[in-house]
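User: Structure with ribose-5-phosphate, tokens only please.
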Amino acid sequence: MAGSFAILCGNANRALATAVADNVGVPLGDAVVERFPDGEVGVEIRDPVRDKDVFVIQSTAPPVNDHLMELLAIIDACRRASAARIFAVIPYFGYARSDKRHGRREPISARLVADLLQTAGTDHVITIDLHASQIEGFFRIPVDSLTAVSILSDAMKRRLAADTVVVSPDVGRLKMATDYAQNLNTSVVLLHKTRETGAEAHVTHLVGDVRGRLCLVVDDMISTGGTITKAVDKLVEMGARPEVVVAATHGVLLGGARAKLTAPPISDVFVTDSIEQHTEGWPRLHVISVAPFLADAIRRLASGTVHSELAVHRT
Ligand code: R5P
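Assistant:
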């Protein structure tokens, strides 16, 4: 199998791509992805990819536009070098929150990204916990949206008390929260969130009972930390135990998020390495690797035994 496919990456998360390649048992392909003095992206793929299936691992994490352009340029280079099929492995899919128009004269940027990926030559997309599953419909090519709920649940089991309740911070995460609750054999509480701006959210209602319980707040991503902070404030106001655990697939963790997430009553934060993380000075940030999980998906896709098995991981 090793000769028939290649794994490449850009600069978004080389550590994850290396771990995936190690797990699959192939060397990471040799590709130079650099910046020209004017900021343009330059790509040179040094290994031949003719007639190979190529898996390009690149999260479109901040700086989102740079990483997206790197991904598009690598895909274009592979297509021009006669790759057989090109798989865009995008553990964190940026622009996914722009999946609909909230008002007039706004773009649907997730659709634009889907068009760009297909125009560049992508044959298949693999992603994890896509913010909105309907984004799959923006593509004419197969999209496998896997979920990290099981691996995060397994990682947290020992940390959680028997009376833990899973909290969905908004209605959009209810399905994910229900999946966590099933894995952890507990129940779900729903918060209703309204968002005034990209950085300002308010919780208006709580459905369920959190009195005296340990709360596990789950989300697909933590960006500024605003959603989590508002959720935690509401939970405490409604009588939850002042000890909250947080889990999110994608730790975007912009400036300021760390200060919010290390303040009591938040105790532990679990994220995956879909985005590169730095845990120095934050011992209670637990980073769970999706590398074995992605390696498994790549192995199955490359060997053509994919579909029924991948379905197990789908959101
Ligand atoms: C929104 O619907 C998402 O699922 C997240 O809740 C949100 O994007 C997190 O962003 P922030 O951390 O900035 O509140």
